[in-house]
Amino acid sequence: MRAVAILAVLVLTGCGGGEVTLQSRFDPNEVAWFSVRGTNTILGSAILRSAAGKVKTCAALPVTLFPVSAYARERIRHLYESENEGFNPLVGGKPADFGGDDPGYMATAKTTRCDARGRFSFSELPDGDYYLVATVTWRERTFGIENGGSLMQRVHVSTGETKDVLLAH
To answer: Organism's domain of life (predicted)?
Structure first.
């Protein structure tokens, strides 16, 4: 379990590889709207298939919601090579150390955990664009190797919307 917690921090904060210098700087004013209570809900699940074809979920693992900003877009592009959706595998993926990272970036994010069925929910969200990042990992019994990674999807909500999202790879 400790390895999963360390993985989640590395994937979600972008730590663990060679240093990457971002061109953008985190601007808290750009995401100030995110602190306002809204009427939208994002709920969903995150799943991966193992090499043996078994479905693995995000049960008890973190899911993080980031408001879209120039800084977030650049980080997401680096980690997932896309701004819309992607998968960053634990083995052979792109963890990175974002040099001089602003702690305010992670402070603006909202995090929850998936329930036992692999479901999550974020409520009272203001209208806007978000990056949803979920961790799905498991340990192979045969070799004791940690597998999986993180899934990302960009989501837009407005006017009291409830959006059900499936993050899958």
So the answer is: Bacteria
